Amino acid sequence: MTQFTANVLSRLTFAMLGILLAISCKNKIEESPTAPIGLQCEYMENPVGVDSETPRFRWRSNVVQDEYRIVVDEDSVQVSNGKGTIWDSGQLKGSDNLAVYAGSRLKPYTRYFWTVQVWSDGETRTSAVASFETGLKEESNWKGNWITDSKDVNLKPAGYFRKSFDATKSIRSARAYVAAAGLFELSINGEKIGDHVMDPMYTRFDKTILYVTHDITRSMKQGQNVVGMLLGNGWYNHQSTAVWDFHKAHWRGRPRFCINIRVEYDDNTVETIVSDTSWKTSLSPVIFNSIYTAEHYDARLEQGGWNAPGFDDNKWASSIEVVNPAARIKSQVLHPIRHVTRIAAHGFKKIDDRKYIFDLGKNIAGVSELTVKGNAGTTIRLKHGEQLDSIGNVDQSNIDVHYRPTDDSDPFQTDIFILKGGDTETFLPRFNYKGFQYVEVTSDQPIELTQSSLSGLEMHSDVPIAGHIQSSSDLINKIWSATNNSYLSNLFGYPTDCPQREKNGWTGDAHIASETGLYNFDAITIYEKWLADHRDEQQDNGVLPSIIPTAGWGYEWGNGPDWTSTIAIIPWNLYLFYGDVRPLQENYENLKRYVDHITEISPKGTTDWGLGDWVPVKSVTPKELTSSLYYYADTRILSKAASILNKPEDAKHYEALAATIADAINAKFLNKTEGIYGKGLQTELSAPLFWGIVPDDVKEKVVNNLVKRIHSDGDHIDVGLLGTKVILNALSENGQAELAYTLASQETFPSWGYWIRNGATSLFENWPIDAKSDISRNHIMFGEIGAWLYKSPGGIKPDAAAPGFKHVLLEPHFMHALQSFEARHTGPYGEIVSSWSRSGDQIHYTATVPANSNATLRVLAETIDITSKTNVEVTTEGPQKVVKLPAGTHTFEIVQ
Ligand code: BGC
């Protein structure tokens, strides 16, 4: 038998096995439609590169789960027969659906299979087999060297790297483990590997670099193989100059990478192809790339077949070995950035045969792809922006304000594409993205473009959707969708403020938007990675920078508790939404150091360290009030985390500290007789209500004063970033949901609806649409309204006492201006639905509570009739009716 036949046979066997496994899995599911589903390891389906010693498993059971058992084994057949020699959790009581691996030590490079078996009413059901695969696990398993092509950080073209090698035997499996400082595109035998873009995610490069694992079995063949790498600058080699000084980063360097290609042959031998000086290198047609501004490509420099066998690389240079830039190399296990949606141009205008304007009809984060035919050497510029000027050209004046170019070679958000001539050519940048709706295409020679010549590709961390809002108000639906658009436009492996002007990981914007994010998207993997970035950035004294990651900027400005409370608020929200203690465990010491630092510098019990109610409509709330409230909130979270993590001393200490801070704030700002904080501005009144420091005996007065204040502000908001987090919630939680809705649904200035009525498809950074500064059109910082829709008209809330929606709080507010409203959120136990429609004062309400969870419905009602077969009691608490709901779908007729 020749090697070739052996290879083909082994592949056939592999394929047959796959088909058999698929059939058997299918049978299993058909036999047991109520088997557990949605199996995840580290919050990903069948992930590769899991290096945690204690990975977490998650599943959903659509039937009552009395007991469960997890088995893990290297042998999938064993696992499907219910045997796990690596880990067998044993039969455990309870309806938990999150388990932490506690088996024998996991080996590197190993695919483990697992199932979960559940018992329900004496019957047992087993899930289909899922898997997770470990990566290198130990840094000592890196066999590759760090290599690059030059030491010149100012060298503009991106480097190609090429390695040819012979796979001498029939291949069973192959993996590429790629660590890079900068960005990379990996190809094998001429084909790009995987559908990720802009890997690896941005980190503090001197501390942590992430490596990415790809299953490359199907791209490899017996015989000659060629691996190609194209390296981009990303944030590692920021050549563009802007006010945050990334071009001066102490870790800046020419992009470099380290690779292990691990090939397992059918005869059980292993060969590892590694990065070293034998890799050949040459400059690529990507003649410039900047994550911040754009990409330039000269198609005349293409070298056909450079990453495939048969290419003559004799003229290429040898790579150079360089130092590993990071203290640690960690596996990247998260939802990658992808080209998620393609958007056809919605508007098109030919100015002349050298100038065209494209309008996507939606403001996005991403790139544009141009297909064109023209003479060799034709230079085409694609200028991207969010708005047009009065004569219809792309206007970047709202977004280029922090850019400090030193010459005209690197125009802002403007790709440059030089044609090679001949056939139709397509250009798509690889190492950059932009925030834009319009593209102005100009050319130095005539070109013929049509509306279909250009399309937009939306990009973001491709997190699964976890929620949906549908209401009778077209405006509310549009606000919700614009909020999600801005949330995703600002999710690139870390949350950003805006996709155009900065792309900075502004902490304040991110904690404000974290509930919105978690109601709508399964974003835990991105937040956990970003919290690791926080731990990398924290100074010994507890201080965090205002932007994370950073090259140093942000430790001196904007990093008070109103922004950097991310270290408290995000782990806490993850705990509430996922019921997972790990984010609290991993960040506990960091949070403690952080709170202790504020305590040290705040002997009075209050602090004015911070930025305050950023970009307010008109009134300015004292930042000492808002910053101290965040200090209070963090201390409360710390105390609650201490109880959860069984640290009673800490819990007591920080609970007492929180009470002292609350007293100090009230002593300084609260006029108890009047029930007014400060001057009684909207943020001044709603922030203490929301964060829970208003003494019970003055609460009513404070609420009444807030209502009066809003009326005197014409029933419009007068808040900034911190105020938007609290105002709608403070009203809804204190009996003023109708007024909250009035604010939320305004269509005139200042309001979210005002932007929408003026054509917005994303949220803006400033309330007036013609403001002079802070005028990005794609900011998520005013995005709490997206979460409020779930919490108030939808009424779906997590319960800290039974987090992860194990117990769902259902507290919908039936606003009179709405005919119907529906909120759906998929939590760890499944989809929660809260849906209502009205006829006059009669509300028809439907709630769906997933299996293995329960809910408490609490509504303001005169009467409530249960119209489903739900056998439960209704109790009355003051003006409220309270119903404890088991899993299932329940319907009600409610009269208010
Ligand atoms: C950013 C904001 C950020 C703010 C803090 C701005 O430039 O875009 O979203 O929170 O600075 O000062």
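^ beta-D-glucopyranose complex. The radius of gyration is 29 Å. Residues 28 and 318 are 53 Å apart (CA to CA).
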